[in-house]
Amino acid sequence: MLKRISIDNFKSLVNFEVQFGELTLLMGRNGAGKTAVLDAIYAIGQVLEGHARVTDSHVFPPSSLTKWQSRNIQTLKLEVELAKDVFEYCLEIEHDRKDRKARIMREELMGNGGPLFQFTLGDVQLFRDDHSKGPMFRGDWRYSALSRIAPGNDNARLRRFMEFMRSVVVCSLNPAGIGSEAGGEDEFLARDGSNFVSWYRYWMQQRPDLAHEHGQTMREMLDGLITFKLDQVGVDTRRLMGMFGDPNENYSVAFGELSDGQRVLCVLYALLSLATGPGPVLMLDEPVNFVALAEIQPWLMELRDACESTIPQAVLASHHPEIIDYLGVRHAILLKRDGTGPTHVVPLSEKVQHLTGDGSLTLSEVVARGWET
Length: 373
Description:
By secondary structure, this protein is of the alpha+beta class. It has helices spanning 34-49, 156-166, 196-206, 208-221, 260-273, 293-307, 321-331, 350-357, 363-368; strands spanning 2-8, 16-19, 23-27, 73-82, 85-96, 101-111, 114-120, 123-127, 133-138, 168-171, 181-182, 225-232, 238-245, 250-254, 281-285, 313-317, 332-337, 343-346. A hairpin with a 5-residue loop joins strand 17 (332-337) and strand 18.
Protein backbone atom coordinates (compact mmCIF):
# COMPACT_ATOMS: atom_id res chain seq x y z
CA MET A 1 0.00 0.00 0.00
CA LEU A 2 1.15 3.53 -0.76
CA LYS A 3 1.34 5.01 2.73
CA ARG A 4 2.80 8.44 2.06
CA ILE A 5 3.98 10.76 -0.68
CA SER A 6 6.15 13.85 -0.25
CA ILE A 7 6.41 16.32 -3.13
CA ASP A 8 8.45 19.52 -3.46
CA ASN A 9 8.49 22.06 -6.32
CA PHE A 10 5.87 20.30 -8.48
CA LYS A 11 2.95 22.47 -9.61
CA SER A 12 1.22 23.78 -6.45
CA LEU A 13 2.95 21.22 -4.22
CA VAL A 14 5.80 22.70 -2.17
CA ASN A 15 7.15 20.77 0.83
CA PHE A 16 3.90 18.87 0.60
CA GLU A 17 3.13 15.55 2.27
CA VAL A 18 0.01 13.43 2.47
CA GLN A 19 -0.74 10.00 3.94
CA PHE A 20 -3.18 7.53 2.39
CA GLY A 21 -5.32 4.77 3.85
CA GLU A 22 -6.82 1.73 2.16
CA LEU A 23 -9.64 3.96 0.89
CA THR A 24 -9.04 7.70 0.64
CA LEU A 25 -11.00 10.65 -0.71
CA LEU A 26 -9.08 13.77 -1.71
CA MET A 27 -11.39 16.76 -1.25
CA GLY A 28 -10.86 20.42 -2.02
CA ARG A 29 -11.98 23.24 -4.24
CA ASN A 30 -10.92 23.64 -7.86
CA GLY A 31 -7.20 24.34 -8.03
CA ALA A 32 -6.54 22.99 -4.53
CA GLY A 33 -4.05 20.41 -5.83
CA LYS A 34 -6.02 17.15 -5.91
CA THR A 35 -5.14 16.36 -9.51
CA ALA A 36 -1.56 17.54 -8.98
CA VAL A 37 -1.09 14.78 -6.38
CA LEU A 38 -2.33 12.15 -8.85
CA ASP A 39 -0.20 13.75 -11.61
CA ALA A 40 2.90 13.26 -9.47
CA ILE A 41 2.08 9.60 -8.77
CA TYR A 42 1.38 9.00 -12.45
CA ALA A 43 4.64 10.69 -13.50
CA ILE A 44 6.70 8.59 -11.06
CA GLY A 45 5.05 5.46 -12.45
CA GLN A 46 5.85 6.47 -16.02
CA VAL A 47 9.50 7.08 -15.13
CA LEU A 48 9.75 3.71 -13.37
CA GLU A 49 8.26 2.00 -16.44
CA GLY A 50 11.52 2.98 -18.17
CA HIS A 51 9.95 4.30 -21.37
CA ALA A 52 9.68 7.99 -20.44
CA ARG A 53 12.41 10.59 -20.10
CA VAL A 54 12.04 12.90 -17.14
CA THR A 55 11.35 15.87 -19.44
CA ASP A 56 8.57 14.21 -21.45
CA SER A 57 5.42 16.33 -21.52
CA HIS A 58 3.38 13.81 -19.49
CA VAL A 59 6.09 13.31 -16.86
CA PHE A 60 8.24 16.14 -15.44
CA PRO A 61 8.54 18.90 -18.05
CA PRO A 62 9.97 22.28 -16.95
CA SER A 63 6.40 23.62 -16.88
CA SER A 64 5.71 21.32 -13.91
CA LEU A 65 8.04 23.38 -11.68
CA THR A 66 6.21 25.55 -9.15
CA LYS A 67 5.70 28.91 -10.85
CA TRP A 68 6.65 31.12 -7.92
CA GLN A 69 9.76 29.11 -7.04
CA SER A 70 13.19 29.93 -8.51
CA ARG A 71 14.67 26.60 -7.42
CA ASN A 72 15.38 24.09 -10.19
CA ILE A 73 15.27 20.90 -8.12
CA GLN A 74 12.14 18.75 -7.85
CA THR A 75 12.01 16.10 -5.13
CA LEU A 76 9.45 13.31 -4.81
CA LYS A 77 9.38 10.60 -2.14
CA LEU A 78 7.17 7.57 -1.68
CA GLU A 79 6.67 5.30 1.31
CA VAL A 80 5.22 1.91 0.38
CA GLU A 81 4.29 -0.82 2.82
CA LEU A 82 4.05 -4.39 1.49
CA ALA A 83 3.42 -6.98 4.22
CA LYS A 84 6.49 -6.80 6.47
CA ASP A 85 8.56 -4.65 4.12
CA VAL A 86 8.59 -0.85 4.16
CA PHE A 87 10.08 0.80 1.08
CA GLU A 88 11.19 4.40 0.69
CA TYR A 89 11.75 5.70 -2.84
CA CYS A 90 13.29 9.09 -3.65
CA LEU A 91 13.55 10.83 -7.02
CA GLU A 92 15.40 14.13 -7.39
CA ILE A 93 15.33 15.96 -10.71
CA GLU A 94 17.38 19.00 -11.75
CA HIS A 95 15.90 21.26 -14.44
CA ASP A 96 17.56 23.66 -16.85
CA ARG A 97 14.73 26.10 -17.47
CA LYS A 98 16.50 27.99 -20.26
CA ASP A 99 17.26 24.96 -22.43
CA ARG A 100 14.23 22.98 -21.24
CA LYS A 101 16.37 20.06 -20.20
CA ALA A 102 16.37 17.94 -17.06
CA ARG A 103 18.33 15.13 -15.50
CA ILE A 104 17.94 12.78 -12.58
CA MET A 105 20.39 13.85 -9.92
CA ARG A 106 19.46 11.20 -7.37
CA GLU A 107 17.30 8.09 -7.32
CA GLU A 108 17.23 5.87 -4.28
CA LEU A 109 15.31 2.88 -2.96
CA MET A 110 15.50 1.83 0.67
CA GLY A 111 13.97 -1.30 2.16
CA ASN A 112 13.38 -1.59 5.92
CA GLY A 113 15.91 1.19 6.51
CA GLY A 114 18.70 -0.33 4.40
CA PRO A 115 19.77 0.51 0.83
CA LEU A 116 18.55 -1.52 -2.15
CA PHE A 117 19.51 0.87 -4.97
CA GLN A 118 21.31 4.20 -5.33
CA PHE A 119 21.83 6.47 -8.34
CA THR A 120 23.87 9.60 -7.68
CA LEU A 121 25.28 11.94 -10.34
CA GLY A 122 25.29 9.22 -13.00
CA ASP A 123 26.70 6.39 -10.85
CA VAL A 124 24.54 3.37 -9.99
CA GLN A 125 25.21 1.27 -6.90
CA LEU A 126 23.20 -1.94 -6.53
CA PHE A 127 22.60 -3.67 -3.23
CA ARG A 128 21.48 -7.20 -2.47
CA ASP A 129 18.42 -8.07 -0.39
CA ASP A 130 20.63 -8.21 2.71
CA HIS A 131 21.83 -4.64 1.90
CA SER A 132 25.37 -5.75 1.03
CA LYS A 133 26.92 -3.96 -1.95
CA GLY A 134 26.51 -5.38 -5.43
CA PRO A 135 27.75 -4.17 -8.84
CA MET A 136 28.32 -0.54 -9.87
CA PHE A 137 27.82 0.95 -13.34
CA ARG A 138 27.09 4.23 -15.11
CA GLY A 139 23.49 5.22 -15.84
CA ASP A 140 21.67 7.55 -18.23
CA TRP A 141 20.65 10.71 -16.37
CA ARG A 142 17.53 11.16 -18.52
CA TYR A 143 15.90 7.88 -17.47
CA SER A 144 15.23 5.97 -14.27
CA ALA A 145 18.20 3.69 -13.70
CA LEU A 146 16.04 1.63 -11.33
CA SER A 147 13.78 0.70 -14.25
CA ARG A 148 16.78 -0.83 -16.02
CA ILE A 149 17.64 -3.36 -13.30
CA ALA A 150 17.17 -6.96 -14.43
CA PRO A 151 15.53 -9.47 -12.07
CA GLY A 152 17.99 -11.57 -10.09
CA ASN A 153 18.11 -14.04 -7.22
CA ASP A 154 19.43 -11.39 -4.85
CA ASN A 155 17.06 -8.47 -5.57
CA ALA A 156 13.64 -9.90 -4.72
CA ARG A 157 12.75 -6.89 -2.58
CA LEU A 158 13.60 -4.44 -5.35
CA ARG A 159 11.47 -6.48 -7.77
CA ARG A 160 8.61 -6.51 -5.32
CA PHE A 161 8.61 -2.72 -5.10
CA MET A 162 8.70 -2.41 -8.90
CA GLU A 163 5.82 -4.86 -9.31
CA PHE A 164 3.78 -2.80 -6.87
CA MET A 165 4.46 0.42 -8.76
CA ARG A 166 3.39 -1.22 -12.02
CA SER A 167 0.09 -2.14 -10.37
CA VAL A 168 -0.78 1.51 -9.71
CA VAL A 169 -3.54 2.65 -12.10
CA VAL A 170 -4.02 6.43 -12.37
CA CYS A 171 -7.13 7.33 -14.38
CA SER A 172 -9.01 10.45 -15.39
CA LEU A 173 -11.49 8.98 -17.82
CA ASN A 174 -12.41 10.80 -21.03
CA PRO A 175 -15.26 8.85 -22.65
CA ALA A 176 -15.11 10.91 -25.85
CA GLY A 177 -11.71 9.33 -26.55
CA ILE A 178 -12.82 5.73 -25.92
CA GLY A 179 -13.54 4.06 -29.24
CA SER A 180 -14.72 0.64 -30.37
CA GLU A 181 -11.74 -1.05 -32.05
CA ALA A 182 -8.42 -2.54 -31.00
CA GLY A 183 -5.57 -3.53 -33.28
CA GLY A 184 -3.79 -5.35 -30.46
CA GLU A 185 -3.77 -6.00 -26.74
CA ASP A 186 -2.64 -3.66 -23.94
CA GLU A 187 -1.82 -4.94 -20.48
CA PHE A 188 -2.24 -1.49 -18.90
CA LEU A 189 -5.11 0.96 -19.15
CA ALA A 190 -4.19 4.43 -20.43
CA ARG A 191 -4.74 7.33 -18.07
CA ASP A 192 -7.70 8.66 -20.06
CA GLY A 193 -9.07 5.17 -20.75
CA SER A 194 -8.67 5.66 -24.52
CA ASN A 195 -7.24 2.16 -25.00
CA PHE A 196 -10.02 0.44 -23.05
CA VAL A 197 -10.92 -1.95 -25.88
CA SER A 198 -7.27 -3.05 -26.27
CA TRP A 199 -7.05 -3.49 -22.50
CA TYR A 200 -10.34 -5.40 -22.38
CA ARG A 201 -9.13 -7.59 -25.24
CA TYR A 202 -5.96 -8.41 -23.27
CA TRP A 203 -7.99 -9.56 -20.27
CA MET A 204 -10.38 -11.51 -22.47
CA GLN A 205 -7.35 -13.56 -23.51
CA GLN A 206 -5.64 -13.75 -20.14
CA ARG A 207 -8.62 -14.22 -17.83
CA PRO A 208 -11.85 -14.96 -19.72
CA ASP A 209 -13.47 -15.86 -16.40
CA LEU A 210 -12.98 -12.31 -15.12
CA ALA A 211 -14.22 -10.84 -18.39
CA HIS A 212 -17.31 -13.03 -18.05
CA GLU A 213 -17.80 -11.74 -14.49
CA HIS A 214 -17.59 -8.17 -15.80
CA GLY A 215 -20.20 -8.98 -18.45
CA GLN A 216 -22.56 -10.35 -15.82
CA THR A 217 -22.18 -7.18 -13.75
CA MET A 218 -22.84 -4.94 -16.74
CA ARG A 219 -26.02 -6.86 -17.57
CA GLU A 220 -27.33 -5.64 -14.23
CA MET A 221 -26.11 -2.07 -14.82
CA LEU A 222 -27.06 -1.46 -18.48
CA ASP A 223 -30.72 -1.88 -19.38
CA GLY A 224 -31.25 -4.48 -22.06
CA LEU A 225 -27.63 -5.62 -22.34
CA ILE A 226 -27.25 -9.30 -23.20
CA THR A 227 -23.49 -9.55 -23.62
CA PHE A 228 -20.30 -7.94 -24.91
CA LYS A 229 -18.36 -9.60 -27.70
CA LEU A 230 -15.26 -8.90 -29.79
CA ASP A 231 -15.99 -9.12 -33.52
CA GLN A 232 -13.19 -9.55 -36.03
CA VAL A 233 -13.16 -6.66 -38.52
CA GLY A 234 -9.66 -7.11 -39.94
CA VAL A 235 -6.67 -9.42 -39.78
CA ASP A 236 -5.70 -8.22 -36.30
CA THR A 237 -8.47 -5.73 -35.50
CA ARG A 238 -11.36 -6.49 -33.19
CA ARG A 239 -14.43 -4.36 -32.50
CA LEU A 240 -16.11 -4.46 -29.09
CA MET A 241 -19.87 -4.80 -29.53
CA GLY A 242 -22.70 -4.72 -27.04
CA MET A 243 -25.70 -6.92 -27.81
CA PHE A 244 -29.00 -5.52 -26.54
CA GLY A 245 -32.56 -6.80 -26.49
CA ASP A 246 -33.44 -10.41 -25.71
CA PRO A 247 -32.26 -13.74 -27.13
CA ASN A 248 -35.04 -13.74 -29.75
CA GLU A 249 -34.89 -10.12 -30.87
CA ASN A 250 -31.64 -8.24 -30.43
CA TYR A 251 -29.36 -5.70 -32.03
CA SER A 252 -25.67 -4.81 -31.69
CA VAL A 253 -24.09 -1.46 -30.80
CA ALA A 254 -20.39 -0.66 -31.13
CA PHE A 255 -18.85 0.26 -27.78
CA GLY A 256 -17.94 3.72 -29.02
CA GLU A 257 -21.60 4.34 -29.87
CA LEU A 258 -22.73 3.86 -26.28
CA SER A 259 -23.39 7.02 -24.27
CA ASP A 260 -20.52 8.66 -22.41
CA GLY A 261 -22.00 7.54 -19.10
CA GLN A 262 -22.41 3.93 -20.25
CA ARG A 263 -18.78 3.77 -21.40
CA VAL A 264 -17.48 5.26 -18.15
CA LEU A 265 -19.60 2.84 -16.12
CA CYS A 266 -18.20 -0.10 -18.10
CA VAL A 267 -14.62 1.05 -17.45
CA LEU A 268 -15.24 1.65 -13.74
CA TYR A 269 -16.67 -1.83 -13.19
CA ALA A 270 -13.93 -3.35 -15.34
CA LEU A 271 -11.31 -1.82 -13.03
CA LEU A 272 -12.93 -3.76 -10.19
CA SER A 273 -13.76 -6.99 -12.04
CA LEU A 274 -10.45 -7.44 -13.83
CA ALA A 275 -8.33 -7.27 -10.68
CA THR A 276 -6.00 -10.26 -10.43
CA GLY A 277 -3.43 -11.40 -7.92
CA PRO A 278 -3.03 -8.65 -5.32
CA GLY A 279 -5.07 -6.41 -7.61
CA PRO A 280 -4.40 -2.90 -8.85
CA VAL A 281 -3.99 0.19 -6.73
CA LEU A 282 -6.60 2.60 -8.09
CA MET A 283 -6.03 6.36 -8.25
CA LEU A 284 -9.14 7.85 -9.86
CA ASP A 285 -9.70 11.51 -10.67
CA GLU A 286 -13.40 12.49 -10.72
CA PRO A 287 -14.42 8.90 -11.55
CA VAL A 288 -18.20 9.38 -11.64
CA ASN A 289 -18.36 12.28 -14.05
CA PHE A 290 -20.96 11.33 -16.70
CA VAL A 291 -22.48 8.64 -14.42
CA ALA A 292 -26.16 8.88 -13.40
CA LEU A 293 -26.94 9.48 -9.72
CA ALA A 294 -28.63 6.11 -9.24
CA GLU A 295 -25.53 4.35 -10.65
CA ILE A 296 -22.95 5.94 -8.36
CA GLN A 297 -23.67 4.33 -4.99
CA PRO A 298 -23.80 0.73 -6.32
CA TRP A 299 -20.34 1.25 -7.81
CA LEU A 300 -19.05 2.78 -4.56
CA MET A 301 -20.37 -0.24 -2.67
CA GLU A 302 -18.55 -2.55 -5.07
CA LEU A 303 -15.38 -0.48 -4.65
CA ARG A 304 -15.56 -0.66 -0.87
CA ASP A 305 -16.10 -4.43 -1.00
CA ALA A 306 -13.18 -4.79 -3.42
CA CYS A 307 -10.93 -2.78 -1.08
CA GLU A 308 -11.59 -5.44 1.55
CA SER A 309 -10.67 -8.29 -0.80
CA THR A 310 -9.11 -7.97 -4.27
CA ILE A 311 -7.98 -4.33 -4.40
CA PRO A 312 -5.41 -3.27 -1.79
CA GLN A 313 -6.00 0.47 -2.07
CA ALA A 314 -8.08 3.14 -3.79
CA VAL A 315 -7.66 6.92 -3.80
CA LEU A 316 -10.43 9.05 -5.28
CA ALA A 317 -10.27 12.77 -6.03
CA SER A 318 -13.78 14.16 -6.35
CA HIS A 319 -16.19 17.03 -5.79
CA HIS A 320 -19.23 14.83 -6.25
CA PRO A 321 -21.64 14.96 -3.28
CA GLU A 322 -22.51 11.25 -3.60
CA ILE A 323 -18.84 10.27 -3.18
CA ILE A 324 -18.27 12.84 -0.43
CA ASP A 325 -21.27 11.60 1.57
CA TYR A 326 -20.62 7.90 0.99
CA LEU A 327 -16.96 7.98 2.03
CA GLY A 328 -17.57 10.68 4.61
CA VAL A 329 -15.34 12.19 7.25
CA ARG A 330 -13.59 8.91 8.01
CA HIS A 331 -11.92 8.64 4.58
CA ALA A 332 -11.65 12.33 3.60
CA ILE A 333 -8.45 14.35 3.27
CA LEU A 334 -9.01 18.05 2.64
CA LEU A 335 -6.56 19.99 0.44
CA LYS A 336 -6.52 23.78 0.47
CA ARG A 337 -4.58 26.68 -0.98
CA ASP A 338 -4.44 30.19 0.45
CA GLY A 339 -4.99 32.31 -2.63
CA THR A 340 -2.45 31.17 -5.21
CA GLY A 341 -0.03 29.77 -2.62
CA PRO A 342 1.02 26.16 -2.05
CA THR A 343 -1.29 23.24 -1.32
CA HIS A 344 -1.72 22.17 2.29
CA VAL A 345 -3.49 19.29 4.00
CA VAL A 346 -5.84 20.91 6.49
CA PRO A 347 -8.02 19.29 9.14
CA LEU A 348 -11.78 19.35 8.79
CA SER A 349 -13.34 21.92 11.11
CA GLU A 350 -14.98 21.06 14.41
CA LYS A 351 -18.21 22.25 12.82
CA VAL A 352 -17.93 19.38 10.33
CA GLN A 353 -17.58 16.86 13.13
CA HIS A 354 -20.51 18.36 15.01
CA LEU A 355 -22.95 18.80 12.13
CA THR A 356 -22.27 15.45 10.48
CA GLY A 357 -22.04 13.64 13.79
CA ASP A 358 -25.54 14.62 14.95
CA GLY A 359 -27.08 14.20 11.49
CA SER A 360 -27.88 17.89 11.01
CA LEU A 361 -26.12 18.03 7.64
CA THR A 362 -24.30 15.65 5.34
CA LEU A 363 -20.62 16.29 4.65
CA SER A 364 -21.39 17.50 1.12
CA GLU A 365 -23.91 20.01 2.51
CA VAL A 366 -21.28 21.31 4.92
CA VAL A 367 -18.82 21.65 2.03
CA ALA A 368 -21.43 23.43 -0.11
CA ARG A 369 -21.76 26.05 2.64
CA GLY A 370 -17.99 26.52 2.85
CA TRP A 371 -17.83 25.29 6.45
CA GLU A 372 -15.34 22.47 5.89
CA THR A 373 -12.39 24.47 7.35
